Amino acid sequence: MEITEKRPKKHGFLKFLALYALVLLVLAALALGGFYLYIRAYEQTRPATVMTAYTGALTVDRLLEQDGDFLAALDRHVQSEEEARACLEQVLGDLSFARRYDAAKEDPEAAYVYALESQGKIIGSVSLSETGESRMGFATLRVSRENVDLSPLCQETEFVLPEGYKVFCNGAELPESSVTERGIHYGLLEEFYDSGYAMPSLMRIKAGPYLGQPELEVHNAQGEKLTPEQLNEAFYTDNCTPEEKETIEAFAQEYIHRYTLYLSGAILAAADGYMNLIGLVEQDSDLHSRLRQAVGGLGFASSHGDTVLSVTLNGAMNVGGGCYVCDLTWEVETLGRAGYVTTVNNGKLLLVQRDGRFRAAAQASY
């Protein structure tokens, strides 16, 4: 008879291991689930998370609701409401927030205060306060105060232009109401506005406030578009033709030479003394001849005592009505007891053109 040996079965042990592993997995899952809920509660109650949810839900209408007068303040001649709303969509796309640590000063009841920023400008603030409830031991927060001011995003552009110039925005001319000031004096003409001759003036045109970068153009009186480099008084006053400048410069050269001779005074003094004495001198006598020659000698000494070294035409402007204003610099060398002395002079001349010739009507030094 054959005897067989019975071996112990391992099935029970394996089942125990499987059950043990399952219990561990369940416990681990529960622990991970609890940890996940804990982390989630922490994240959801963080101030930055609340602010991210707040800014993500903001709309253009919500911004305008908070800043109710914003659209009404925009220059509708420069920008329509639809264009402004499109710009505000870009503002939302660039929106960010930053904590302000002076919350106690701005909102004493708030737990946190954040500044709203867009395009590098602060456009408002948001206060966060505790709700009185908690999640997993973390106090929950709510938006308790909103303040939106979109005005820092606005821009204004001012132009100081000659009368007759026009400003266009996106192809449409700005109306007369955009002119905020007239009668602005040209710096070049400042000394001649009370000369009795009509002088041109400038006007100030304001475009804005507006958002973004609308296309602004300036056209002169002839309808020509100007570049940004041309929008200055130096360009406006430089309106003489080359032929006019050449004629003005030739007149200025002659005028300054005669004016310098006049200022020397020797000719006038000698002439006055001669006329005062000649009534007591026999006409055509030797003394009469010598006195007349002395007057000429004094004039020669005067003209050689003050010598005009150079005359420079800095600029010339046709102010209309046959009048011109030129800006001059001239150097004079004077011979005196101390030797030669050179002086630099600056001045302006108001010229009147009649019968094809210039005459000086007013003069100013600076």
Set down the secondary structure blueprint:
Elements: H1 11-45, H2 47-57, H3 60-66, H4 70-73, H5 81-93, E1 96-100, H6 103-106, E2 112-118, E3 121-135, E4 138-148, E5 155-162, E6 166-169, E7 172-173, E8 179-184, E9 202-210, E10 216-219, H7 233-237, H8 242-264, H9 266-278, H10 286-305, E11 306-320, E12 323-336, E13 339-354, E14 357-365
**Which fold name corresponds to the CATH topology of the largest domain?**
Nuclear Transport Factor 2, Chain: A
Assembly annotation: single chain
Give the N-terminus to C-terminus distance in angstroms: 144 Å
- Give the overall shape: elongated
Structural class given helices, strands, pairing?
Answer: alpha+beta
Number of domains: 3
- Enumerate how many helices there are, as a single number: 10
How much helix, percentage-wise, in residues? 25-40%
SSE pattern: HHHHHEHEEEEEEEEEHHHHEEEE
Looking across the biggest beta sheet, what order are the strands in? Answer: 1-2-3-4
CATH class of the largest domain: Alpha Beta
Percent range for β-strand residues: 25-35%
The whole-number mean of residue pLDDT values reads: 86
Jot down its keywords.
366 residues; alpha+beta; Nuclear Transport Factor 2, Chain: A; 3 domains; 4-stranded antiparallel sheet; 37% helix
Walkthrough of the structure:
With 366 residues, the chain is α+β, with helices and mostly antiparallel strands. It has 3 domains: 41-153, no CATH class; 155-234, no CATH class; 242-365, Roll (Nuclear Transport Factor 2, Chain: A), CATH 3.10.450. The protein has 10 helices and 14 strands. The chain has helices at residues 11-45, 47-57, 60-66, 70-73, 81-93, 103-106, 233-237, 242-264, 266-278, 286-305; strands spanning 96-100, 112-118, 121-135, 138-148, 155-162, 166-169, 172-173, 179-184, 202-210, 216-219, 306-320, 323-336, 339-354, 357-365. Strands 1-2-3-4 form a 4-stranded antiparallel beta sheet. The chain has a 4-stranded antiparallel beta sheet with strand order 11-12-13-14. A 3-stranded antiparallel beta sheet has the order 5-9-8, with no helix packed on it. The chain is elongated.
